[in-house]
Amino acid sequence: MRLYSLSVLYKGDPKVHLLKAAYDVSTFNFFQRSSVQEFMTFTSQLIAERSAPGSRASVKEQEYLCHVYVRSDGLAGVVIADNEYPQRVCFTLLDKVLDEFSRQVSKMDWPSGSPATISYSALDGYLSKYQVQTP
Question: Could you say which protein family the record assigns here (predicted)?
Fold first, then answer.
């Protein structure tokens, strides 16, 4: 059971853009890591774009399960995990991350923000904390 990606996005008008993300691509071949990360970023944006505000969904994409939560204020979170990772845990994590993000990052910064301009550093910690260690 693994988490591969945790992203916070803003679903504005007309499109979705990434505010902050964390990735764990350590299980992939070194030469595949950047393309896997690009795939996860693209997939996160696409799923958030296709989800209605106020909705939660789980979407299967290749061998991954992508869990998305779009709040009614436009803030969205996406977790990309393997098929065995518990769905309930993913949505609990998304709730926690989006609540904390909205308290720490001004709503005025969401429409124009980018990973380089948003200062929110908790994603990497959450990604490693919620990894399920298999013996």
Answer: Belongs to the synaptobrevin family.
